[in-house]
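During the second year of the project, the team shifted from modelling isolated chains to modelling whole assemblies. The rationale, set out in the original proposal, was that interfaces cannot be judged from single-chain predictions alone. As a representative example for this report, we include one of the complexes processed in the last quarter. Its constituent sequences, exactly as entered into the pipeline, are reproduced here:
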Amino acid sequence: MIDTGAAPQRAAPLFLRQHGDGPVKLNDMFLGLLLVAAAIGIWLSAQNFSRLPNQAYGSETMPLVLSGLAMALGVFLIGRSILAGDALPRAMRPEWAGNPGALGALLVTLALIAGYIALSGRVGFVPVAVGLVLILMLVMQVRWWVALPMSIVATLVVQQAFARLLLVPLPRSGFLGFLW
Amino acid sequence: MLRRHFLATGAMLVSAGMLAATSVAAQDYPERPIQMIVPWGAGGGTDAVGRVFAALLQDDLGVPVNVVNRTGGSGVVGHSAIANAEPDGYTIGIMTIEIDMMHWQGLTDLTYEDYDILALVNADPGGLMVSSDSEYQDTAALLEAIKAEPKGTFKASGTGQGGIWHLGLAGWLMAEGLDPDHVTWVPSEGAAPGITDMVAGGVDMVPSSLAEGRSMIEADRVTPLASMSDERQDAFPDVPTIEEATGTDYTHAVWRSVAAPDGLPDDVKARLEAAIKAAYESDEYQTFMKDRGFGLRWAGAEEATEIIAADDASLGKVMKEAGLAAE
Amino acid sequence: MPVILEALGLVFQPSVLLVILASAAFGMFVGSIPGLTATMATALLVPITFFMDPVPAIAAIVTATAMAIFAGDIPGALLRMPGTPASAAYVEDAYAMTRKGRAEEALGAALVFSAIGGIFGTIVLMTASPILAEVALKFSSFEYFWLVVLGLSCAVFVSPGKVSRGLISLLIGLFAATVGIDNPAGEPRYTFGNVELLAGVQFIPAMIGLFAVSEVLRAVVSRSNKSFKGGGDRSGIFRNQWRNLRRYPVQVLRGSALGTAIGALPGAGADIAAWISYAVSKRFSRQKEKFGTGHVEGLVEAGASNNGAVSGAWIPALVFGIPGDSITAIVIGVLYIKGINPGPMVFINDPQLIYAVFVVFLLANIIMLPLGWVAIKAAGTMLSVPRNVLMPIILLFCIVGSFAINNTVFGVVLMLIFGVLGFLMDENDIPIAPAILGLVLGPMLEQNFITSMIKADGSFAAFFERPIAAGLGLFTIAIWSIPLIAWAIRRAKR
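Output from the structure prediction step:
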């Protein structure tokens, strides 16, 4: 559990040590401020919860403990950043931000999942799933003559495996009822 | 282009789906698989009852009856799922006594009136169990000690805070002239963890059904003190009722019922009721329940609704007096 | 002796062996799909077992669960989508090996050492059940509280990168675990009046979101169309396992023993076992720095521990009828249906049945090797599919898996939320695994703390009054304080 590292005579306990120099998008100062904000938010929300009758503890206990931990960790990160002379909250650009269309593709993917959530109950699993797989493949630059058969086959395999074999009640579409 | 085409197809499918939904009438019920919603987790007693019923109904109705566990939220999630389904006979569920409690706690607006109750198929009286190491090996001695010691000395467990066995204990304490919280309730995730904790020395008693402690009773780790029923239970002939043990007339029982969302077509309801009655009377069900130590109790749709309504009123009263109901 | 022969006779019948083979294939299939659990495989088998004799009925369940739990490692290693919280402990190492073109070796290790752990657990089950069950009965909420704290500590210390970011991840998981009504006070928290949220954050959809959906999102933004492996995977499934066994004999034994012991506790299971074993493995390793970068050592120990715990869970189930996990809970139900009442009497009344169960355990763990080989080979072909074709299909599996755990589209909502969260965490070097453990153990932490305080009338001293609790408590405190003290001493010397 304890990593003694390369230079034992100077090594701090693991959780006080700064290591891992990879590209970090939010610096410690930023995360520290976020943690302090979260701690305050949780503390405020915990005021609505009550204790068990005749006890000092109840449903407020866990949120209060978490709030305390988040506050301690946030203050520690802020303090360490200030001592290290890195006192400004910074956010770096992620490396994929340079890829053309990356953000758009990300948003389309999230919208597709949201679309499944909104539509599958009414339209049924099969048409929505085919649409989701097909559009995502097209977004990821699969040729349409590959994407179309792949999306249909994948959906049917999943539908047969889950609805028939594993008895998962996937939403049915009226006219495709014969598949179930 | 492709995308627009997809949208058009989608719109077509929506209308086709709606058409299909309305045309599925009851003339050939059942013609597709039926879902049986169980509001409690796989492995528990309610799940077991649901699965036995599903297997037996499947034989009778000739279509697959699939058990679907909708767990969590102290049963609210699963009971809501049953009530909110289409009343077309293709969604039924096992309804438990919690339906008579959760609306008093302010967790939901649902009550038994939101269901078409088809039958009551099981009832288990509460019990009173202590560890075999306990110094109180009969109910009278335990009650004497509870009365003699200050409030909060004794601890009990077996369900969550405000759960059914908590109410059973609170009701008994009130019947004996004590405060409902004279024995401190230690919340647990069910009877089995409560019994384990009692044997480990964590709590003093568990007021759950004796069936839930059966293996530990047979292992001589748990002593059953009393049964909260009118008569002794067949599976535990040596265990006295509360009335025999302390002279106080007190009973408390949980039940399981089969229910569907309110508004079932009459012919579908009749078909289901017949199938459930046949399943209840089958050898498989009777043997299964006896082997597990579960209590057999039959009530048809009307009687079941009356029982459930009566429990709703009495549990509400206990919960208000014990301070467990929402204001 | 005649009892054992009778037991062998019960098992070695064509019909029973056929049931074992069929349920093995079934378990392998269910387990290898992210989102489908061993518990689900068991629940699906129950109606079928109604029509079987006791021995094949138990054999079907035992075999299917053993396979399903191993198979959960397959999507973990190939796609970084662990099938169970237990396999999340070593998913980073397994996935790193896949990226180095050593997927077969990683899965081979998971397979072989799962089997060894399972066999070890079975031998313990056969020889020491009554004693271990007695010890397990001594565990109350005080002991479980410390065990949970120990498990959570391990997750923070073993996660790669900065410990502060591991702690952030743990806090996220613990906070998500507070949602819902299933807390000791039975009061709804953070549900915003939503009925589905009353049930809290289900960990399977959350886990699929954090690990798998975040991976899909990364593939979408990176716009890479290549398949995972350039050349062929030549590492071999079984080739290096003999060497691994000779190199890490202590690790295998330690993992199996610890896993079986933790599994035997009714309130703890394979997830805590795998994490503690992974942490122990790293602590005593001579190559600590390699953990998390595709090193097989932790995989060997935690993999053995994981399956040891699965066998261990049967100890309290058979001896006292107390379920060690949700699978044994179902099995106890099936045993009752078959007229076998688990408890001490079954060892006296039906010893041949108990021995038959043991034989099935051994058989299941042995048959796992060839079937696992087939499953790994079949799943491995997935890696040669271009990523832009594979990822959309994986997303479909994620959605269906999230739906299937509770048959509600709300699972997909959770998956989406946690997918975005996991993506953001990945982007900021916040490890994901501690959040999973926080989510799984958070409710146990709260439950055991609050009930302990009620039982002790609010006295903290009670956490040290019982001997086992005191031992576990002091050990946990030592883990946290010794590095601090050592650091302070070194500092003072300078």
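Residues 1-23 of chain A have pLDDT under 50 and may be disordered. Chain A touches chain B at residues 52-54, 119, 122-124, 127-128, 131, 134-135, 138, 144, 167, 169, 173-175, 177, 180 (CB under 8 Å).
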